[in-house]
Amino acid sequence: MAVPSSNVSVNQLRLNPLVGRWVTVSDDRSNRPYAFAPRMLQVESDARPCPFCPGNEEATPPALETYGPSGQWLVRIVPNLYPAFDGHEALTVQNLGPVFAQAPASGIHEVLVLTRDHSASWADLDERQAGLVMAALRDRFEEHASTPDVRYTQAIVNHGREAGASIEHPHGQLLGVPFVPKELAEEEAGFERFVGGCLMCTTLEAEVEAGHRVVLEDELAVVVAPFWSGSPYELLVIPRSHEAHLTDAKPKDLVAVGRALQNVLARVRVLLDDVAYNLVFHAAPHRHEGAFHWHVHVLPKVTTRAGFELGTGVLINIVAPERAAEELNAVTV
Question: Which range of residues forms the domain containing residue 198?
Fold first, then answer.
């Protein structure tokens, strides 16, 4: 197998095979003044008690699940007070005119409280706590999959106001929706297009062989700054075990992914300070048996998408993934 060079020319187009879209790597653009947007926004601006802190449990709806010793939860799942998707109505499309179609936004919207510690983040979780969070995700995915009208569940963690968080206490969200979103449909199509096995297994093997974009590697999981990174310091967490559905992952693999996330997020924090970021968990849609391999996208928010990117869908990455991996590997945590 030919291994791509670690050297990056001034500008390169690279194809993201997962979604079939080109990205532009333009490493020299990071030398512009103010190329990186510093974190400016505070998450909370009032003095109300945090609804996710111990002792304030009555501020949320009753818990759907709790994990931990009796009387002291370590991880907690509650319904979202302001759900984007709610109810069990079937996806029935109404056509109100030639370009007006609507359907009920039925589904599930939940909050997963990652820890009791208000000032922590995923980077601060120990291995046991990170594994507990991953087990909670698996359990909620199983519950969503048993709901007939939920076709896909998106798990996310938004850290920082710039990443979409409205509450500082570390938490994630699970959204069970009655359709398969375009991004997932495109990833499924990418797996189907790929010739020669699993796209994600091949990515893992090729990146490990190339070496210069690997940030973390153990016997169960690998973290890379993928060749086709569309944004600075974008990372991809890949379990070595090939499972389409997160619900089919073995406990040891869930723990390994949780541990890998803790490690690389701690490195990101050292390198980029308390940068906002998104974690996006991608697994096959419920009841789909096609080609897929579940994985996690880590997306630090150090730049803003501008007009070209919004108008064309072509991302411009001003930090080559080779440089991102080199910088992250130089960090000690």
Answer: 12-31+61-86+101-329
